[in-house]
Specification:
Blueprint: E1 4-12, H1 18-26, E2 44-50, E3 53-59, H2 69-84, E4 87-93, H3 100-111, E5 117-123, H4 130-143, E6 148-151, H5 160-170, H6 188-204, E7 213-221, E8 227-235, H7 238-245, H8 250-267, E9 271-279, H9 287-292
Parallel strand pairs: 1-3, 1-4, 4-5, 5-6, 8-9
Antiparallel strand pairs: 2-3, 7-8
Length: 301
Protein backbone atom coordinates (compact mmCIF):
# COMPACT_ATOMS: atom_id res chain seq x y z
CA UNK A 1 0.00 0.00 0.00
CA UNK A 2 1.34 3.43 -0.98
CA UNK A 3 0.38 5.97 1.66
CA UNK A 4 0.40 9.73 1.33
CA UNK A 5 0.44 12.43 3.99
CA UNK A 6 0.91 16.16 4.11
CA UNK A 7 -0.27 19.56 5.25
CA UNK A 8 -3.01 21.60 3.59
CA UNK A 9 -3.39 25.26 4.56
CA UNK A 10 -6.81 26.87 4.27
CA UNK A 11 -6.43 30.62 3.76
CA UNK A 12 -8.80 33.45 3.01
CA UNK A 13 -10.46 36.51 4.46
CA UNK A 14 -12.22 36.30 7.83
CA UNK A 15 -15.59 34.55 7.57
CA UNK A 16 -14.79 32.96 4.19
CA UNK A 17 -15.90 29.62 5.60
CA UNK A 18 -12.53 28.03 6.40
CA UNK A 19 -13.57 26.65 9.79
CA UNK A 20 -16.83 25.28 8.36
CA UNK A 21 -14.90 23.55 5.55
CA UNK A 22 -12.35 22.13 7.99
CA UNK A 23 -15.08 20.69 10.20
CA UNK A 24 -16.87 19.27 7.13
CA UNK A 25 -13.66 17.66 5.84
CA UNK A 26 -12.73 16.15 9.17
CA UNK A 27 -16.26 15.15 10.08
CA UNK A 28 -16.08 16.64 13.57
CA UNK A 29 -16.02 20.04 15.16
CA UNK A 30 -12.38 20.99 15.69
CA UNK A 31 -12.53 24.66 14.75
CA UNK A 32 -15.00 27.14 16.19
CA UNK A 33 -17.58 28.50 13.79
CA UNK A 34 -19.38 31.76 14.52
CA UNK A 35 -20.88 34.63 12.59
CA UNK A 36 -18.10 36.82 14.00
CA UNK A 37 -14.97 37.43 11.95
CA UNK A 38 -11.46 36.56 13.16
CA UNK A 39 -12.59 33.84 15.57
CA UNK A 40 -9.89 31.32 14.63
CA UNK A 41 -6.79 32.39 16.50
CA UNK A 42 -4.52 29.35 16.47
CA UNK A 43 -3.37 27.20 13.58
CA UNK A 44 -5.82 24.41 14.32
CA UNK A 45 -4.99 21.18 12.57
CA UNK A 46 -7.73 18.76 11.67
CA UNK A 47 -6.85 15.33 10.32
CA UNK A 48 -8.93 13.74 7.54
CA UNK A 49 -8.48 10.30 5.98
CA UNK A 50 -9.22 9.86 2.28
CA UNK A 51 -8.36 6.42 0.94
CA UNK A 52 -4.67 5.82 1.69
CA UNK A 53 -3.99 9.54 2.17
CA UNK A 54 -3.90 11.46 5.43
CA UNK A 55 -4.72 15.14 4.98
CA UNK A 56 -3.62 17.38 7.83
CA UNK A 57 -5.51 20.67 7.61
CA UNK A 58 -4.04 23.88 8.95
CA UNK A 59 -6.97 26.21 9.58
CA UNK A 60 -5.34 29.61 9.66
CA UNK A 61 -6.73 32.83 11.11
CA UNK A 62 -8.47 34.95 8.49
CA UNK A 63 -6.15 37.28 6.59
CA UNK A 64 -7.02 40.92 7.18
CA UNK A 65 -5.29 44.26 7.71
CA UNK A 66 -3.73 43.99 11.19
CA UNK A 67 -3.98 46.82 13.71
CA UNK A 68 -3.08 45.39 17.13
CA UNK A 69 -0.38 43.01 18.36
CA UNK A 70 -2.89 40.13 18.45
CA UNK A 71 -3.96 40.93 14.87
CA UNK A 72 -0.35 40.92 13.67
CA UNK A 73 0.38 37.62 15.40
CA UNK A 74 -2.73 36.08 13.81
CA UNK A 75 -1.80 37.24 10.31
CA UNK A 76 1.78 36.02 10.77
CA UNK A 77 0.38 32.63 11.84
CA UNK A 78 -1.81 32.50 8.73
CA UNK A 79 1.04 33.18 6.30
CA UNK A 80 3.33 30.87 8.27
CA UNK A 81 0.78 28.08 7.88
CA UNK A 82 0.57 28.69 4.14
CA UNK A 83 4.35 28.81 3.67
CA UNK A 84 4.83 25.51 5.53
CA UNK A 85 2.06 23.59 3.76
CA UNK A 86 2.33 21.10 0.90
CA UNK A 87 -0.87 22.43 -0.69
CA UNK A 88 -2.71 25.73 -0.14
CA UNK A 89 -6.46 26.23 -0.61
CA UNK A 90 -7.61 29.82 -1.07
CA UNK A 91 -11.25 30.26 -0.10
CA UNK A 92 -13.27 33.07 -1.65
CA UNK A 93 -16.89 33.98 -0.88
CA UNK A 94 -18.80 33.84 -4.17
CA UNK A 95 -21.12 36.73 -3.35
CA UNK A 96 -18.32 39.06 -2.22
CA UNK A 97 -16.02 38.44 -5.16
CA UNK A 98 -12.58 40.03 -5.43
CA UNK A 99 -12.39 42.42 -2.49
CA UNK A 100 -9.42 44.56 -1.46
CA UNK A 101 -8.55 41.83 1.06
CA UNK A 102 -8.58 39.15 -1.66
CA UNK A 103 -6.28 41.35 -3.77
CA UNK A 104 -3.79 41.47 -0.88
CA UNK A 105 -3.96 37.69 -0.43
CA UNK A 106 -3.31 37.12 -4.15
CA UNK A 107 -0.24 39.37 -3.87
CA UNK A 108 0.90 37.42 -0.80
CA UNK A 109 0.47 34.07 -2.56
CA UNK A 110 2.87 35.20 -5.26
CA UNK A 111 5.51 35.80 -2.58
CA UNK A 112 5.45 32.47 -0.70
CA UNK A 113 7.25 30.47 -3.31
CA UNK A 114 7.02 29.35 -6.91
CA UNK A 115 5.73 25.93 -7.80
CA UNK A 116 3.47 25.58 -4.77
CA UNK A 117 0.18 23.81 -5.44
CA UNK A 118 -2.61 26.31 -4.78
CA UNK A 119 -6.26 25.41 -5.30
CA UNK A 120 -9.10 27.91 -5.48
CA UNK A 121 -12.29 27.07 -3.59
CA UNK A 122 -15.17 29.42 -4.32
CA UNK A 123 -17.51 29.02 -1.36
CA UNK A 124 -21.19 29.85 -0.79
CA UNK A 125 -21.99 29.20 -4.45
CA UNK A 126 -25.72 29.01 -3.69
CA UNK A 127 -25.71 32.79 -3.19
CA UNK A 128 -24.97 33.80 -6.79
CA UNK A 129 -26.07 33.02 -10.35
CA UNK A 130 -23.98 30.60 -12.43
CA UNK A 131 -22.84 33.30 -14.89
CA UNK A 132 -21.47 35.37 -11.98
CA UNK A 133 -19.58 32.29 -10.76
CA UNK A 134 -18.05 31.68 -14.17
CA UNK A 135 -16.96 35.30 -14.48
CA UNK A 136 -15.42 35.28 -10.99
CA UNK A 137 -13.59 32.02 -11.74
CA UNK A 138 -12.14 33.48 -14.92
CA UNK A 139 -11.05 36.73 -13.21
CA UNK A 140 -9.31 34.90 -10.37
CA UNK A 141 -7.51 32.45 -12.65
CA UNK A 142 -6.35 35.37 -14.79
CA UNK A 143 -4.74 36.91 -11.69
CA UNK A 144 -3.11 33.77 -10.30
CA UNK A 145 -2.23 30.37 -11.76
CA UNK A 146 -4.35 28.05 -9.61
CA UNK A 147 -3.72 24.33 -9.91
CA UNK A 148 -7.43 23.59 -9.75
CA UNK A 149 -10.71 25.42 -9.08
CA UNK A 150 -13.59 24.04 -7.02
CA UNK A 151 -17.12 25.37 -6.57
CA UNK A 152 -18.29 24.46 -3.09
CA UNK A 153 -20.74 25.06 -0.30
CA UNK A 154 -18.86 24.21 2.88
CA UNK A 155 -22.05 24.52 4.92
CA UNK A 156 -24.10 22.15 2.74
CA UNK A 157 -21.26 19.90 1.65
CA UNK A 158 -21.56 20.55 -2.12
CA UNK A 159 -18.26 19.97 -3.93
CA UNK A 160 -16.39 19.12 -0.72
CA UNK A 161 -15.80 15.44 -1.62
CA UNK A 162 -14.25 16.42 -4.96
CA UNK A 163 -11.89 18.88 -3.23
CA UNK A 164 -10.90 16.32 -0.58
CA UNK A 165 -10.23 13.68 -3.27
CA UNK A 166 -8.03 16.08 -5.24
CA UNK A 167 -6.08 17.08 -2.14
CA UNK A 168 -5.51 13.42 -1.19
CA UNK A 169 -3.97 12.73 -4.60
CA UNK A 170 -1.74 15.84 -4.49
CA UNK A 171 0.01 15.05 -1.20
CA UNK A 172 3.52 13.58 -1.20
CA UNK A 173 4.04 9.87 -0.69
CA UNK A 174 5.06 8.98 2.84
CA UNK A 175 3.93 7.51 6.16
CA UNK A 176 0.94 8.96 7.99
CA UNK A 177 1.78 11.72 10.44
CA UNK A 178 -0.89 10.92 13.05
CA UNK A 179 -2.73 7.84 14.35
CA UNK A 180 -5.64 7.01 12.03
CA UNK A 181 -8.27 7.83 14.66
CA UNK A 182 -6.85 11.22 15.66
CA UNK A 183 -8.80 14.18 14.31
CA UNK A 184 -6.86 17.13 15.70
CA UNK A 185 -3.44 17.77 17.17
CA UNK A 186 -4.61 20.58 19.42
CA UNK A 187 -4.49 19.56 23.07
CA UNK A 188 -7.97 18.84 24.41
CA UNK A 189 -7.47 21.67 26.90
CA UNK A 190 -7.27 24.16 24.02
CA UNK A 191 -10.20 22.64 22.12
CA UNK A 192 -12.28 22.91 25.31
CA UNK A 193 -11.28 26.57 25.74
CA UNK A 194 -12.17 27.29 22.10
CA UNK A 195 -15.61 25.75 22.55
CA UNK A 196 -16.33 27.99 25.54
CA UNK A 197 -15.01 31.03 23.66
CA UNK A 198 -17.34 30.23 20.77
CA UNK A 199 -20.34 30.21 23.11
CA UNK A 200 -19.25 33.56 24.58
CA UNK A 201 -18.84 35.01 21.07
CA UNK A 202 -22.30 33.86 20.03
CA UNK A 203 -23.88 35.15 23.22
CA UNK A 204 -22.17 38.55 23.39
CA UNK A 205 -22.34 39.41 19.66
CA UNK A 206 -20.85 42.90 19.20
CA UNK A 207 -20.02 43.64 22.81
CA UNK A 208 -16.48 42.35 23.40
CA UNK A 209 -15.55 39.13 21.61
CA UNK A 210 -11.99 40.26 20.84
CA UNK A 211 -11.42 41.69 24.31
CA UNK A 212 -11.54 38.29 25.98
CA UNK A 213 -9.79 34.95 25.92
CA UNK A 214 -10.48 31.61 27.57
CA UNK A 215 -7.91 29.26 29.10
CA UNK A 216 -8.37 25.79 30.54
CA UNK A 217 -6.64 26.06 33.89
CA UNK A 218 -7.25 22.57 35.26
CA UNK A 219 -8.42 19.23 33.84
CA UNK A 220 -9.19 16.33 36.14
CA UNK A 221 -10.05 12.82 34.98
CA UNK A 222 -12.48 11.37 37.53
CA UNK A 223 -12.83 7.73 38.56
CA UNK A 224 -16.39 7.56 37.23
CA UNK A 225 -15.11 8.39 33.71
CA UNK A 226 -16.26 12.02 33.77
CA UNK A 227 -14.00 15.06 33.37
CA UNK A 228 -13.86 18.10 35.65
CA UNK A 229 -12.74 21.16 33.69
CA UNK A 230 -11.89 24.54 35.24
CA UNK A 231 -11.61 27.47 32.86
CA UNK A 232 -10.77 31.15 33.26
CA UNK A 233 -12.28 33.84 31.05
CA UNK A 234 -9.88 36.79 30.93
CA UNK A 235 -11.34 40.22 30.21
CA UNK A 236 -9.66 43.61 30.05
CA UNK A 237 -11.89 45.73 32.28
CA UNK A 238 -14.24 45.46 35.26
CA UNK A 239 -17.12 46.57 33.02
CA UNK A 240 -16.37 43.64 30.70
CA UNK A 241 -16.60 41.25 33.64
CA UNK A 242 -20.14 42.46 34.31
CA UNK A 243 -21.10 41.90 30.67
CA UNK A 244 -19.75 38.33 30.70
CA UNK A 245 -21.49 37.51 33.99
CA UNK A 246 -24.77 39.12 32.89
CA UNK A 247 -27.72 40.12 35.01
CA UNK A 248 -27.87 37.81 38.05
CA UNK A 249 -25.21 35.65 36.37
CA UNK A 250 -27.55 34.65 33.54
CA UNK A 251 -25.04 35.09 30.71
CA UNK A 252 -22.23 33.05 32.27
CA UNK A 253 -24.74 30.37 33.27
CA UNK A 254 -26.10 30.06 29.73
CA UNK A 255 -22.56 29.99 28.26
CA UNK A 256 -21.50 27.33 30.76
CA UNK A 257 -24.51 25.13 29.99
CA UNK A 258 -24.01 25.38 26.21
CA UNK A 259 -20.25 24.74 26.41
CA UNK A 260 -20.73 21.83 28.84
CA UNK A 261 -23.29 20.18 26.55
CA UNK A 262 -21.04 20.47 23.51
CA UNK A 263 -17.98 19.25 25.38
CA UNK A 264 -19.88 16.26 26.73
CA UNK A 265 -20.99 15.37 23.20
CA UNK A 266 -17.49 15.86 21.80
CA UNK A 267 -15.81 13.79 24.52
CA UNK A 268 -18.69 11.30 24.68
CA UNK A 269 -18.82 11.43 28.49
CA UNK A 270 -20.08 13.54 31.34
CA UNK A 271 -18.38 16.89 31.86
CA UNK A 272 -18.33 19.13 34.95
CA UNK A 273 -17.43 22.61 33.71
CA UNK A 274 -16.57 25.48 36.05
CA UNK A 275 -16.01 28.99 34.70
CA UNK A 276 -14.38 31.97 36.41
CA UNK A 277 -14.10 35.51 35.05
CA UNK A 278 -10.93 37.45 35.84
CA UNK A 279 -9.93 40.99 34.92
CA UNK A 280 -6.48 41.13 33.33
CA UNK A 281 -6.06 44.58 31.71
CA UNK A 282 -2.96 43.74 29.68
CA UNK A 283 -3.65 40.18 28.55
CA UNK A 284 -3.25 41.27 24.92
CA UNK A 285 0.37 42.17 25.72
CA UNK A 286 1.30 39.02 27.65
CA UNK A 287 3.46 36.40 25.91
CA UNK A 288 1.93 33.63 28.02
CA UNK A 289 -1.58 34.29 26.68
CA UNK A 290 -0.28 34.02 23.09
CA UNK A 291 1.38 30.67 23.86
CA UNK A 292 -1.98 29.40 25.15
CA UNK A 293 -3.56 30.36 21.80
CA UNK A 294 -0.79 28.71 19.78
CA UNK A 295 0.47 32.06 18.47
CA UNK A 296 3.95 33.56 18.55
CA UNK A 297 4.11 36.69 20.72
CA UNK A 298 7.10 37.99 18.72
CA UNK A 299 5.07 37.92 15.49
CA UNK A 300 2.92 40.71 16.92
CA UNK A 301 5.76 43.19 16.85
Amino acid sequence: MTTRAGFVALIGEPNAGKSTLLNRMVGAKVSIVTHKVQTTRARIRGVAMEGDSQIVFVDTPGLFRPRRRLDRAMVAAAWGGAADADVVVLMIEAHRGITEGVERILDGLSEIGEGRRVALAINKIDRVQSEVLLGLTQDLNDRFEFSETFMISAERGHGVDALRGWLAAELPEGPWLYPEDQIADLPMRMIAAEMTREKLTLRLHQELPYQLTVETEHWEERKDGSAKIDQVIYVMRDGHKGIVLGKRGETIKAVSQAARAELAEFLDRKVHLFLQVKVRPNWLEEAERYSEMGLDFKDGN
